[in-house]
Amino acid sequence: MLYPTDAEKLAIAAEEARLGGDEGGIPIGAALFTADGRLLGRGHNRRVQDGDASMHAETNAFRNAGRQRSYRDTVMVTTLSPCWYCSGLVRQFGIGRVIVGDDLTFRGGQEWLAENGVEVTVVNDPLLIERMRAFTEANPDLWNEDIGED
Questions:
Q1: Is 0.90 surpassed by the pTM of this model?
Q2: I need a labelling partner for 78 at 20 to 30 A (CA). Which of 43, 91, 121, 138 fits?
Q3: d(Cα 11, Cα 111) in Å, to the nearest integer?
Q4: For 126-138, how does the pLDDT look when each residue is reduced to its tens digit (9 = 90+)?
Q5: Active-site positions?
Q6: CA 26, CA 56: separation in Å to the nearest integer?
Q7: What secondary structure letter does DSSP report for 74?
Q8: How far apart are CA 28 and CA 114, in angstroms?
Q9: Could you tell me which of 97, 113, 85, 95 has the C-alpha nearest to residue 28?
Q10: What confidence category does residue 69 fall into, taking pLDDT thresholds of 50, 70 and 90?
């Protein structure tokens, strides 16, 4: 199945964010696609569920995609601006494009990605912004732990 539009791709990541929140975790989702829209892998932030500080949504989706010969023509879709850790993953493996659902709640390394040749598309979906706003207000300690703030 192909997901040719940014909205269709973002819907997969949004569903992952919902699943993560329903599991008691941080409601951030991601998915990795080929340039033509074939889903390679999807996932959500599982730091709480797995007790693993490295299991951010983008990392989960990347791992679930399995090994690829090249990532240059792939698209990482994430419901929230990628943190520096996840931005590093995008750069390390040469992912060519990132679609961001919300960069108002949090802004990580997306400008750095753009400066280094990654195509970044920001959507700022109102439902994703509201989901993260509600989560960060209700769970400030957990949120600060996730983004590395004291």
A1: yes
A2: 138
A3: 23
A4: 999 999 999 999 9
A5: 58
A6: 9
A7: E
A8: 21
A9: 85
A10: very high
**Domains of the chain, with CATH numbers?**
6-145 (3.40.140.10)
Q: Are 76 and 58 in contact (CB under 8 A)?
A: yes
3-state secondary structure of 64: helix
Q: Are 54 and 36 in contact (CB under 8 A)?
A: no
The strand pair at 74-78 and 29-34 is best described as antiparallel
Q: Using one digit for the tens of pLDDT, what is the confidence trace for 33-57?
A: 999 999 999 999 999 999 999 999 9
Closest alpha carbon to 96 in 123, 114, 122: 114
Angle at 130 between CA 41 and CA 31, to 5 degrees: 5
* Predicted confidence (pLDDT) at residue 148 exceeds the cutoff of 90: no
